[in-house]
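Researcher: Quick test of sequence recovery. Tokens follow.
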């Protein structure tokens, strides 16, 4: 699916079109993942990033990528 968004031409003076498109995709993926609307793998796909790079972006923005309780972690370790 293609979604068109109109931006003022003067905004594009500050950004390369491809760079702006990539930034919007990444930010959208981060927002949707944080809200629980899409999975981590789907978010990394939307952002055109491998899952590890996307997880790193999540870390930069303090978005949790691993949600496991202390009890669950202890069961896994033991």
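Model:
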């Amino acid at each position: 699916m293609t979604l068109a968004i109109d931006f003022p031409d003067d905004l594009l003076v500050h950004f390369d079109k491809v760079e702006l498109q990539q930034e919007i995709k990444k930010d959208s993926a981060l927002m949707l993942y944080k809200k629980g609307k899409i999975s981590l793998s789907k978010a990394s796909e939307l952002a055109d990033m491998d899952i590890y790079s996307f997880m790193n972006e999540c870390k930069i923005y303090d978005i949790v990528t691993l949600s496991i309780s202390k009890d669950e972690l202890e069961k896994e370790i033991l």
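The mean pLDDT is 88.
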